[in-house]
Design a protein that fits this description.
This protein has 63 residues and is mainly alpha-helical. It is built from three helices and no strands. Helix 2 packs antiparallel against helix 3.
Length: 63
């Protein structure tokens, strides 16, 4: 029997919503998946998967 997560990609969506909520609280407009810049999304995914908080912080502050 597989021990996979019951909701495919649920953790990623939850993480993005959590970060978005924090940004709103701090009055920061945050677009982690802009339609015209795939690079931002790819850097976000890499930082989130690797747990690279410095990369995520730089990305968020840069956008």
């Amino acid at each position: 029997m597989s021990k996979s997560h019951p909701f495919r990609e649920g953790n990623g969506r939850t993480r993005r919503e959590f970060i978005r909520t924090l940004a709103i609280k701090e009055r920061i407009e945050l677009h982690l998946n802009p339609p015209n810049n795939k690079d931002i999304y790819e850097r976000y995914i890499y930082g989130a998967i690797s747990g690279n908080m410095e990369l995520l912080a730089a990305l968020i502050l840069g956008i």
